[in-house]
């Protein structure tokens, strides 16, 4: 199985780097092929909202930058993992910019799902959707907002498997490792 980790933090954050290493190692121990896309080293411009990826070049953004790799990763991987420091209850600005560029993966057509309007899937298979939020200091309110945000993203994309985890620097590394291992097991339950 193939996975990509969209790393929305900085390599200078030792705690987040430890979580990244634990996650990558746990996935590789299960036989996964894991690629990490470090967003701080990529050039991803914000989505302009031009809808060219739907109308002019279906499935591909008109902007020729590293943002084109984002929907391609959704198309070719079994699992997508968002790893991000939590910023005001949301993703880091690096990760949010990358997430906004997945729109070419969705169809421009809509349907009603559980009383809500959602995009149709452009492709028959979708990857599993997993997110780990990182906090230098515990903040339950921000963690709750993050969990709700990821829950809405999950509802919108309807992945075959999903899980969300919030970790913080006050937790022992062993405790973090156990929670990450539990998440990786959920990745195994696919379609």
Please describe what this structure looks like.
- The structure is a single chain.
- With 191 residues, the protein is of the alpha/beta class.
- It has a single domain, classed as Rossmann fold (3-Layer(aba) Sandwich), CATH 3.40.50.360.
- 37% of the residues lie in helices and 25% in strands.
- The protein has 6 helices and 7 strands; from the N terminus they run βαβααβαβββαβα.
- The chain has a 5-stranded parallel β-sheet with strand order 2-1-3-6-7, with helices on both faces.
- α1 packs across α6.
- The chain is globular and about 50 Å long.
- The chain starts with a strand and ends with a helix.
- The mean pLDDT is 93.
Topology (elements, then pairings):
Elements: E1 2-7, H1 14-29, E2 33-38, H2 52-55, H3 69-76, E3 79-85, H4 93-100, E4 106-113, E5 116-121, E6 128-135, H5 140-157, E7 162-168, H6 173-188
Parallel strand pairs: 1-2, 1-3, 3-6, 6-7
Antiparallel strand pairs: 4-5
Helix pairs in contact: 1-6
Q: Keyphrases for this structure?
A:
single chain, 191 residues, alpha/beta, Rossmann fold, 5-stranded parallel beta sheet, two-stranded antiparallel sheet, globular
């Amino acid at each position: 199985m193939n996975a990509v980790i969209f790393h929305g933090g900085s390599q200078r954050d030792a705690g987040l780097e430890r979580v990244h290493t634990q996650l990558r190692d746990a996935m590789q121990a299960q036989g996964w092929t894991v690629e990490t896309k470090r967003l701080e080293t990529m050039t991803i411009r914000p989505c302009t909202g031009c809808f060219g990826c739907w109308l002019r070049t279906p499935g591909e953004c008109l902007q020729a930058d590293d943002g084109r790799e984002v929907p391609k990763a959704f198309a070719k991987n079994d699992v997508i993992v968002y790893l991000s420091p939590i910023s005001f209850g949301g993703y880091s600005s690096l990760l949010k910019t990358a997430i906004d560029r997945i729109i070419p993966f969705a169809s421009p057509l809509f349907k009603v799902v559980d009383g809500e309007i959602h995009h149709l899937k452009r492709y028959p298979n979708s990857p599993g959707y997993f997110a780990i939020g990182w906090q230098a200091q515990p903040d339950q309110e921000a963690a709750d907002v993050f969990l709700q945000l990821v829950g809405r993203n999950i509802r919108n994309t309807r992945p075959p498997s999903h899980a969300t985890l919030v970790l913080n620097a006050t937790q022992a590394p062993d405790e973090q490792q156990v929670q990450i291992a539990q998440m990786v097991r959920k990745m195994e339950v696919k379609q």
